[in-house]
Amino acid sequence: MSKQFDVIVIGGGPGGYIAAIRAAQLGFNVACIDEWKNAKGGPALGGTCTNVGCIPSKALLQSSEHFDQASHHFAEHGIEVKGLGLDVAKMLARKDNVVKQNNDGIVYLFKKNKVTFFHGRGSFAAAREGLYDIQVAGAAEEAISGKHIIVATGSSARALPGAPFDEENILSNDGALRIGGVPKKLGLIGSGVIGLEMGSVWRRLGAEVTVLEGLPTFLGAVDQQIAKEAKKAFDKQGLKIALGVKVGEVKSSKKGVNIAYTDAKGEAQTLDVDKLIISIGRVANTQGLNPEAVGLKLDERGAVVVDDECRASLPNVWAIGDVVRGPMLAHKAEEEGVAVAERIAGQHGHVNFNTIPWVIYTNPEIAWVGQTEEQLKAAGRAYKAGTFPFMANGRARALGDTTGMVKMLADAATDEILGVHIVGPMASELIAECVVAMEFRASSEDIARICHAHPSLSEATKEAALAVDKRTLNF
Q1: What pLDDT sits at residue 1?
Q2: Is the residue at 232 inside a domain?
Q3: Which of residues 351, 373, 400 is at a domain's end?
């Protein structure tokens, strides 16, 4: 007879493991299934985010930032560095250790919260009255059953047709995190979050980086005033960004990768690089889930079809994170995981898609929440805008990083904050205040009236709020 659980979570990424922990906190008997493996074949909980995404990329971004500072900026602080060297193997080892710490942390949390963990691939086997049978394919085959199933299987990198990932020359986010040495020339197809972050890492370490983007505008989802400011900074750093290109044949050989493409003027071009990172989006990871066994409905993209509360097409089956509609963000998955666990318990889980923050961890960082100026114009909504540059912020000057600005958008009549967009130092941290303000439907005047510490980068947020009413104090 199979082991029976109140809740079974398939997937141990940010959405899955958080859903499992919250369900256990609410008194349910919970199991979580995850197939990620570490180098020794053991479990590596945390999904794409922890293993080949958010966490390792930030570790490398930090290492590359230190190297860039030592190479180009320490001298202006009176710090002399002689014989500066780079040990990529050690850098990668540190990254791997950071990942392991996070893997181990989740294992500890499962033990603390009495979540039963199964290492392997989970799939639907059958549905019977009040229960779903789940097969676990791992070192040993196991069969378990549960009253509620939460699908949290995440997403996979989208391959470019005709150029499959080999993780040697043509790289996904996984291979991009394991390049053993600084390539002389690095190419990227796609200027999304992953592409720009990985391009930034290897550019700082000395690679010549070229980005090929099919869209005619840079960072089309970002407020365009902010995107233009960011592109100026990237251009200054030496990132070569070609917009409006059409990629043709991609050839990989022992020498590297050759990319044929047509530029924005319609002229044929070629690019030869040592390594090529493909960053053209991600697809829902439902392969092997065996939804046919129970009649679980998927959409044309292979994602699980859910309603606004993450209920799937079957009773007591839920799905969260990258495997459903909405932004593919780890923190969005976490919020959905908590909300679903609470809904199973009869509570009212809360996820507000309008106040989910977005962050690109380049230098300068880019972060935003709410609507862009372009979206407000398209909707015909009357608004006021206020901006404040970091070059007028005392803390930014002391840091030696005055690139960028804070931009705040508010309703013309009510002054409710509709969106905040930041490009500059520590944007990923500064955006949190704005998320809180928007969640409580604050006005720009509310932010303007709150005392902010001096000197701090957050004063730029206060000044942008003051700018909405055209009364900045330091610019």
Answers
A1: 63
A2: yes
A3: 351
